[in-house]
Amino acid sequence: MKLTSKYFDSIRVKPEDDRTKTQEEPSCNWRGCEKAGDFPAPKGREKEGEYYLFCQEHVRDYNKKYNYFVGMPADDIVDYQKSASTGHRPTWAMKDKNKKGKSGKAAGSETDAHHLFDDDIEEPTQVKGGRRLRNLERKSLGELGLGASATKEDIKTRYKELVKRHHPDLNGGDRTSEDKLRDVIVAYNYLKKVGMV
Length: 197
Fold this sequence. Notes:
This protein is mainly α. Among the domains are: 25-73, no CATH class; 135-193, DnaJ domain (Helix Hairpins, Orthogonal Bundle). It is built from 6 helices and 2 strands. The chain has a two-stranded antiparallel sheet. Strand 1 and strand 2 (51-54) form a beta hairpin.
């Protein structure tokens, strides 16, 4: 903008006092204290989200004496603490799959569709030599349909059988079991890599 412009003369500037109004800091809520209240402290039970503002000295004193459960019956305190362990969210008891219902089925069978809690599957967890099976080794053996007690020869024999069964060239070009073949090959290669074959 040029200094000789007609608009330059019409610009008004507020006086310095109006432009820099200082925002007043809240004072400490402690009786008789005039310091700034920079530190929030909770007001208490049933006043969640409401805070006192104290100076640093008085917030320390307040926090030392603060008790959320003041005036609350002992049974309610125990219930509150028990509920706090689950984040105050509802929980349900898990059904015992070994208990039979009216239909004769195990009670937990309808809730455990993926059989995550089946205890009746007995898989040895150790291979020859006494070391424990890793999860991926157990999964790879399961992909081949073998248990932990399988020998190198068992693994090789089973691998050859599954490749013949699922390979498209040996099934007249049928590619429906190609994914299963890929899983079998990956499982065998892993077992080979860890020295089980």
